Amino acid sequence: MKKILISRRKGETQAVILNDGEFESYFIERDNEPPKFVGSIFLAQVEKILQGMQAAFVDIGRDKNVFLQFQNKNLREGEKILVKIEKDAEHYKAARATLEISLPSRKIILLPTTNKIHVSKKISAIEKTRLKNLVKNILPENCGAIIRTAAENSTADELAAEIEKLLKLWQEISQIAEKKKKPSLIYGEDLITKIIREDFFELETFVTDNLKIFRRVENLIPDEKLLHYDGEDLFKMFGVDTEIKNLQLKELPLNSGGFIVIEKTEALTVIDVNTGGCDEIYQTNIEAAEVAMKQIRLRNIGGIIIVDFINLKTDTDKKNLLEYLEKLAQIDRGKTFIVDMTPLGLVEITRQSY
User: N or C: which end of the chain has fewer CB within 10 A?
Assistant: First the structure.
């Protein structure tokens, strides 16, 4: 079961998710930083087609245009389209968008612009077939869906209820877009809304030290699960204040005596694993993998990540390390993909931040 802790202090909103007491996720939004739009849907206007690249720059009504890559679709300059933001702008790089609109709920992600149905890889083959048939019978012909892991063992009525809500939301989005004359935000979720949607069914307690946030979520969360904390430090009360401070550190120690160093650049993030004199190279790498993947998750690091593990001598050890990384990636709510290990022992990871 999960505890959601939300603290609002000094122009910042911080969120911590504890899963059975373990520090699972951490998020922060600062008032003085540009808003994040990943997952938001915009009415956009095509400004410039990049010939030969199947790409374009589109105006979404913000200061800077957004980069859009598309396939099998003919766009023309000046055309109005709906896009979903995949990646926020970073440094000198433009935000990235897609034409593939998706609307998530707990068990289903609605794909209103395609008729394809996908099922989570974590669900067994027999259950995949059952769920796919149920969803296919519920969806309109012109809609697709992604059936999430949380849908396992769900009934037709439970799935139909979620799909009905998503279809209604899509109808509202489409109607709003039709009325808009200029590029603008059509639909978006803030941090608190996203967290409640993702973790509501596993929620044990929602605790906040901010009365305005408490009032806002009163109609979303049952009274017995909602608490207002009026003490001095919410995170210290739940014993996560030290772990939050550690997220600012460049160097983190390992129990084995080794340590990892996290360096973020404009192009990618590099994590270097050091032995610290320990002779147990494989075990140090395993421990480093666990710490590194946790920090990637908690710091919400996105894009390209390179982990420089200590050189392993046998193919078996390399294979076991990659399999362990795959296992750790599965508990991340961000889309994390373990690419491969290079001949130099560098592990390539890509991650879409949450």
Answer: N
